[in-house]
Amino acid sequence: MTYTRVEYISVHISFLMLFLVTLLNPINLFYKVDRPDHFSKTSMTIASLRTTGFMITRCLQTKHLPLGNLYESLMFLSWGFSMLYPISDVGDQNRLSRAVMAPSATLTHAFATSSLPQQMQHSTSVVPASQSHWLMMHVSSTSISYATLLCGSLLAIGLLTLFYSGVGSFSVVNLEHNFQKQISISPPNPCNNIRIQANVQSYSYLLLLNSRKCQLINCLDKWAYQTISLGFSLSTIGILSGAVWANEARGSYWSWDPKETWALVTRLIYATYLHAKIDEKQMGEGPAVAASMGFFSVWIRFLGVNLLGVGLHNYGWLVRR
Description:
Blueprint: H1 3-30, H2 34-62, H3 70-88, H4 96-115, H5 118-121, H6 133-163, H7 169-185, H8 190-250, H9 258-279, H10 285-308, H11 317-320
Helix pairs in contact: 1-2, 1-4, 2-3, 3-4, 3-6, 6-8, 6-10, 7-8, 8-9, 9-10
């Protein structure tokens, strides 16, 4: 059996497993049934192993780490999402992180296999200058940092969505104010007692709903911070190793290439988020807005520069089309 056939089987089985896990996400998130949860974990394990098999096959075929083109980079990114899936399960009783990892892995995998032309999915050889160990460290750590930062940003986007939707704390405060006012001015009679009892039930319901909402926001905020902190550290390793390789290959650590510029922009955005979380201990929409901006910055850095064919870090897909 040829390498191409093995790759084809591995990639399509991996996508099928990822798709099944994504379909089961709502059940695992809201109902927490043991059997679908176990099936999701097993399916994600199979998907991770199959994607790992694809990358090993590419390594044997090309004699280098499978990050030589956009297709391989996207598959590596999808693999990073799938590897973060079991890690995120540790300590996350609400399974919120897993609800982000599975769709991210599926969509990235689908874009790589369905949207890119066939000629971009074939293995390619790299020039000798690109076979440096520093470059391999740079590309691998940067790709994993992409996956981690994107997951953290998606959690922050979920936090913002929850923060600005449904019942807010102001609703509870207003209801409490009206309830106390009604008690103070209402004479004691059966009709007023029924009305006050109805307001008590409404106030209790809103208070319980708001409490659960706050707990969910706290959980999202915690996991977004921890995930982005990890991704920021991996991004640091990627930038430093890339600078060392660039100095060896081009004689300069930094050349203000478009992708390098966007790397700086992305880093400043996430540094702003971490600064707000560490120094001021803020929670809520402020830092989450910065993390949400980082989501778009990462995709511009990863896909926008690559596809438009600008600078040294590109695959020129849109230009060739």
